[in-house]
Amino acid sequence: MLDDFGVSMAYQKAWRARENALELARGNQDDSYQKLPIFLHMLKVSNPGTIIHLVTDNTYHFKYMYLAFANSIKGWKHCRPVIVIDGTYLKTSFGGTLFTASTMDANNNIFPLAFGIGDSENDSSWLWFFTKLKETYREREGMAIISDRHKSIENAIDDVYPKAFHGACIFHLLNNIKVNFGVHGEDLNLNFVKAAKAYRSRCHSPTRRYTMMTSNIAESINAALKAARTLPITTMMEGLRSLVQKWVWKNGNEANGTFTQVTTYTETVLRENFIRAIKFQVFSVNTILYQVVVE
Q1: Does residue 289 lie in a domain region?
Q2: pLDDT tens, position by position, 88-111
Q3: What is the rounded CA–CA span in Å between residue 99 and residue 94?
Q4: HSE on the CB side for 264, CA within 13 Å?
Q5: What are the residues whose beta carbons fall under 8 Å from the beta carbon of 105, sequence distance 6 or more?
Q6: Is the sign of the CA dihedral 10, 15, 20, 24 positive or negative?
């Protein structure tokens, strides 16, 4: 202000002016919570099949919120039965935590399943979120849940999904090793990842994790919502809806333009493997045994 307009002001006055400007552009935090029920109702009306749960405490203050879009519910049966779970902080004056559940579609795109908001990552909030998640998507055979090593997530999975396999994100597990044992270095990173992805390690998993060894897709969602997490809750939910709609539109157009029997990602992998395979030499079993005996 001093450089541009020649006006000298104290830090607190500049801060208050900034907060007032942001409130004019984004809306008031208190008013946003009052508008949330109306927004969620209209979201459900305009997206038939969408499931929404809003819970308040005894004083009618916000407590929990759960949202699963109709498109996600319809598409879940076509995705691999692996759900990645994560929670991240909301950067507002009221705080709170954003819960996410996601998977990957056949073309290896991020496929959001459900979102939730609670006070923090505690046993009660995670239990409520997992309960609503199971009510929405049920439990598929051979289902696996991937997350970090948060104890509340583990407790909630044991209560709600006792038959599902709970796998740890390998990078969170690696960080735990570094913190607890004080071991660092590129050799540790390389050898740990190799060991985690080795077939003799993965064969001990009671269900298939496919290629989903980390919770990176959840971290990607958190990164995409980084700016939205600073907004009032209703504005944030509109930003979230807009993001999911863009992904659905983009991935849907790509799928409609696919004319092979498999997805674009799978077709690319098959072609690359075929190109490598034509350079291989094939020997009969007798020839291999003869070479071994001679050597």
Answers
A1: no
A2: 999 888 889 999 999 999 899 999
A3: 16
A4: 10
A5: 75, 78, 79, 111, 251
A6: positive
* Domain assignment present for 185: yes
Please give the residue range of the domain that contains residue 116: 27-261
Give Cβ neighbours of residue 84 (< 8 Å, ≥ 6 apart).
Answer: 101, 102, 103, 145, 146, 147, 212, 215, 217, 218
Rounded CA-CA distance 292/295 in Å is 5
Question: Does residue 209 sit within a domain?
Answer: yes
Flag whether 286 is in a domain: no
Report how many domains make up the chain: 1
Label residue 176 by pLDDT band (50, 70, 90).
Answer: confident
**CA angle, corner 90, sides to 115 and 128, nearest 5?**
40
- The predicted model scores a pTM of 0.86
Which amino acid is it at 215? S
* Cα dihedral sign, 49-209-156-237: negative
